[in-house]
Structures are given as C-alpha cells and as structure tokens.
C-alpha cells in the first residue's frame, strides 16, 4: 500500500513538474513589442523603441499569465513622458504587445520665472522648460486662479490642481467635439485663465474661463461648468464672425439667458 502511494505521488509530482517546466518554457515571455497608433511618431525608430521597452523592466521568461502589467505601464509612462500606453496585450504563447500612442503638448503652466511645465490634455508633465512663449504651434499658457498641489513634479508625473482641474481636463474633449483638433486649438488660443466670481443671479461662486487669441481678443465663458461643450460651440462661431481689428475695443462674452439659451455678447471694454 505504501509503495503504491509513493508511486502515485511520484507520478503526480512528475506531472506537476512537467507542467511547471512547460509553463516557463512555452509561456515564458520572450518578446515585447511596441504597437504604435500614432502616425509620424517620435517612437518610430527601432533604437528608440528598444530603449522604451527596456525602460519597462519586463520580467522575461516569467509566465505570460503572471505579468504585472500595471507596473509596466507605470514605468513606461514615467520613463517616457511623451508615451501614452493604451494597454498591454498578451499574445500567446510568449509575447507582450504594448499598444501606445504619442502624447501631444497642449498646455503650459508657469511655476517660476525659470520653470514651466509643458502638459498634455491629461495634465501629464511632458517637459520642464526654463523659459516659454506661447506661439500658434506650441502649448497654450494656463494662468489665472490656478495653483498646483504637487509643485515638485517632474517629467512623467501628472499634475494635481487645487482648483479648476475638471474644467481644464474638459477643454480639449469639448474642442474636439466641436471639430477642433489639438493643432487648431493651439493655433487659436494664446492663453487661458481660470477665474472665479459671484454669480449676480444665483449669488454663488462660479468658475469662468478667460481666453485670449493671438490678436489680443478677450473671450469669457461664464458658468463654464454648465453646458461647456455648447458654450465652446457658441464661442467658436462668435470668434469666426469677429473682426480682429476690434480686439482692442471689444471683448466676447458667452452667457446663458433665463430660458437656458446660450448666446454670445460683444461688449465694449471699459
């Protein structure tokens, strides 16, 4: 009886050992590849791709089932600020495919006279510059009543604002829903300020956006957190009809009337 048990356990142990060997040999990760979803990516060259993959510190030869993908994504994003990882897909038997795209610079924020954060639409720090001037091809300068919680952030970190973060994060999607891609947004707006005021009708504090184009035209979106996409649509239509020569004398205001209708008001500067 004892001999039969020994044989049985030996057979079971042998099978388990064989399965473990197969698990590590057949399903152990051997390849990691970059699957780029951006045309003309900064990560296109083989040399750069290899550097990106190395920065993820992948556990080669470990079974594909037990890979810590969240950890890899965190390392890849931190070490490569301009990289946005969509997900990491397991391709059996032994390949991990990093589905990714380039992040675009959208905003800049001044931290000091010699420290500017360049941000994407998710408020990820892409670069830290010593000087910055907004042009029609680079980032839109953020200002107003904005302050940063993690002031010691560096490239690869995400900024946390203590006010207005949801509104800033909603800006790019709202513009895209109005058929304005990032390059068009940067060509139109030189700077955006978040301000706060007491609404004269509701007597409540509200956030509003103060935007400037490259002709110096001031545009204000009041009650910005309400029907934001529609107000952006109204602003774009009003801006297209505005004569740039009047930028010094007038400003545009986007408001909502008592019926809930959104309208643009051209107001003379005081």
Structure description:
- With 270 residues, the chain is of the alpha/beta class.
- The protein is 30% helix and 30% strand.
- It contains six helices and twelve strands.
- The strands form two sheets. A nine-stranded mixed sheet has the order 6-5-4-7-8-9-10-11-12.
- The longest helix has 25 residues.
- The protein is elongated, with a radius of gyration of 27 Å.
- The termini are far apart.
- 24% of the residues are buried.
Which features does this protein show?
three-stranded mixed β-sheet; alpha/beta; 270 residues
Please tell me how large the radius of gyration is.
Answer: 27 Å
Shape field: elongated
What share of residues is helical?
25-40%
Please provide the count of β strands: 12
The DSSP helix count reads 6
Low-confidence stretches: none
- Assembly type of the chains comes to single chain
- Spatial sequence of strands, sheet with the most strands: 6-5-4-7-8-9-10-11-12
Overall pLDDT metric: 90
């Amino acid at each position: 009886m004892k001999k039969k048990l020994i044989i049985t356990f030996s057979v079971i142990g042998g099978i388990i050992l064989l399965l473990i060997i197969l698990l590590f040999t057949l399903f152990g990760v051997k390849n990691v590849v970059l699957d780029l979803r951006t045309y003309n990516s900064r990560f296109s060259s083989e040399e750069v791709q290899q550097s990106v993959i190395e920065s993820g510190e992948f556990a080669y030869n470990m079974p594909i089932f037990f890979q810590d993908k969240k950890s890899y994504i965190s390392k890849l994003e931190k070490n490569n600020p301009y990289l946005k990882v969509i997900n990491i897909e397991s391709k059996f038997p032994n390949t991990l495919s990093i589905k990714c795209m380039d992040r675009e610079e959208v905003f800049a924020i001044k931290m000091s006279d010699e420290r500017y954060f360049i941000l994407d639409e998710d408020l990820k720090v892409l670069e830290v510059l010593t000087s910055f001037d907004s042009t029609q091809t680079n980032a839109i300068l953020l200002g107003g009543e904005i302050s940063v919680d993690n002031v010691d952030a560096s490239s690869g970190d995400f900024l946390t604002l203590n006010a207005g973060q949801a509104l800033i994060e909603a800006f790019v999607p709202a513009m895209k829903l109005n058929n304005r891609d990032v390059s068009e947004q940067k060509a139109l707006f030189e700077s955006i300020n978040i301000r706060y005021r007491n609404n004269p009708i509701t007597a409540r504090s509200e956030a509003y956006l103060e935007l400037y184009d490259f002709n110096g035209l001031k545009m204000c979106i009041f009650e910005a957190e309400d029907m934001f996409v529609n107000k952006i649509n109204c602003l774009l239509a009003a801006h297209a009809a505005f004569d740039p020569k009047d930028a010094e004398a007038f400003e545009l205001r986007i408001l909502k009337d008592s019926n809930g209708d959104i309208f643009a008001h051209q107001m003379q500067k005081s």
